[in-house]
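Dear all,

This email documents one entry for the complex benchmark we are building for the journal club exercise. For each entry we list the sequence lines for every component of the assembly. Then comes the predicted three-dimensional structure of the complex as a token string, followed by one or two observations. Please use this as the template for your own entries, and keep the labels exactly as they appear.
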Amino acid sequence: MGVKIKSMKQEDFKDNEYIESLIKKLKENGTNAVVGMFDDLINWGRSNSLWPFTFGTSCCAIEFMSLGAARYDMARFGFEVARNSPRQADFIMLQGTIVHRMASPMRRLYEQLAEPKYVIAVGGCAISGGPFRNSYCVVKGVDQILPVDVYIPGCPPRPEAMFYGMMQLQRKIKVERFFGGVNRKERIRDFLAQHPEEEFEKR
Amino acid sequence: MANIQEKISALCPEATFEEGETLLVTVPDAKWHALAKAMKEDADLSFDYLVGITGVDWKESMGCIYYFTSTKYGTHVSVKVSTTDREKPMLHSVSDLWKVALIHEREVYDFYGIIFINHPDLRRYFLRNDWKGFPLRKDYDASDKANPIRLEAEKNEDDTVSYIEDAEGKIQKKRKLVFKPEEYVINIGPQHPSTHGVMRMRTALEGETITHIDMVTGYIHRGIEKLCEGLGYPQSLLFTDRMDYMSAHQNRHCLCLCIEKALGLEVPKRAQVIRVMMDELMRLSSHLLSYGCLTMDLGATTAFFYGFREREIILNIFEKTCGARMSLNYDTIGGVMADIDVDFANDVKALCKLMPERLKEYHKLFTGNVIANNRLRGVGVLSREDAINLSVTGPSGRGSGWACDVRKTAPYSIYNEIDFDEITETEGDSFARYMVRMREMEQCVKILEQLADNIPEGDYCAKVPKIIKLPVGHWFQQVEASRGAFGVYIESTGEKTPYRMHFNSPCLNLLGAVDPCTRGEKIADLIAINASLDYVVPDVDR
């Protein structure tokens, strides 16, 4: 078992158990032969053509620019172009600190992303607030506001680390049920229901 | 200095003086505006360059410290104005004399709630407009209860407040619209590929022509200055790398210099040379990035790849010595964190050998291009007087013909021993600003060539006490960062932590220049002008 992606060997990934458990969960009740095949096909296509939506607020965004330039060139792995409109992107690449003023535009941009949508939190600031955690106006981790799929730690993470995180997202997508699978959508709906806009007001 | 003191006490007999690193003049608020006018217009003083305004809360009083420099004589003076009223503190605005004060006073208002009388547009600058309290006051309640994360959209402010003093001295609150009802307003940002960071420009248009831009910033305001007040001096160093990440070394150098000045610490020669070399490498990489971004904003995507190609070589050099590509954390109080890599000098020499031909390539690719010329020449003109009035320093200020390089005007570290030229252009348009950067890269290479073979032997860091306590007092230090004069103000009460630390960032002033530069230009040129001014938004917001 396992998820094959062309760019990196299975054994080079460090948390294969997690993916294995995902697969196990997915196949618990058996897979429909026809729909299962279509799932694989579609996920193969989806995972190899993920377009990031750049949401760079600070230093990590410059490293992301290096990712787009010739030395690292993320187009090799299917992250063809970075889009600046949420309508044209598959996942949101959150780079940098999110402050109180940015929280509401960020949530709105997330909601504008077309389904299926994913979130990668890049850098210490996006994950937990990083060095600015004690500040009066920094959001202490974007997972308070958005459901995050992959975390990439670092300050800023090296481009290789960003690739690693983005490939993890590819693997996650490969084991997802596309047809009839509402698990992902449900998860997002639950998250948004648990973090309503009014609740933040009350806190 | 005595001359300035005599002159000011003749102009304003109530002023008291305090000798220090620079002369500190304390003026009562009622006399301040008249003195400011005289200081600017008097031929013997002519303090035409307002370096920065630092708001301070001294608990029993609150006020501002203004730093002035005369571009004519090169003299410095600082002025302290304060008020004891905490409920409704009011000071007189000097924004009619120095236009740069328009932003700096809004910043002070945002942090301390000090109302500036006669300021035309007193709104919050960094924080949400429904924010409660003033965060840099010493009695501010920083808990999440007062200001929770709000996910509902922030309301646009259509009108602004100003406090006008009439002839009898009565102060009246007046509201006025930001935009006229007939103006067509288009919103650019906060998440936009060409704003070079997260900020918003509410642009009023007349057809295709820009009439006025309202800048909305604070989308990355992290409250660094307040955080510094709770951290020791060595701990506070890390924030400088994350403000303007494209001048990480210079910013950190500045804070180190300021602390070393306060401690009276002698930095070993080797460390000084390494610091200057790192500064110049950083400047080179920053200008390469700015070249890449400017070309990309104008649609020349290929040139972007060329700029990044050489930038990667510099990042390799950084990585070998500092261990990181960005956020380098290299300078420290008393020297540098670690000795240089064995290959450092050779790598730098190889880079110096490579750069001249690569620079030729850049010019070939972009500078002579007809489209680039038409879109940059004569667009976004900033005159020398305006540049000084708006305190636009760095390559953008030098593009307007103002020789404002801190490395020349107030040499620090070993810059007075190095042979290099200060680049200025006279046109003041986008092309001039672009050319200053391109020519400055040659000077960076020149400096690096001189130093690569002459790194002296010795310690890379001086002996520094384990716990650093600064004596009572205040200090101000400037260095030339990639984008202009970066200043640090430290006020100490003798504790382990600073009482007040203020970062005077060049990009904040550059942002103030966007509106004057773009008035009357076409909306399509807005992006090119912004790219040529080359600001970094996290440095603006801090």
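Observations: DSSP finds eight helices and four strands in chain A. The first strand of chain A starts at residue 52 and ends at 56.
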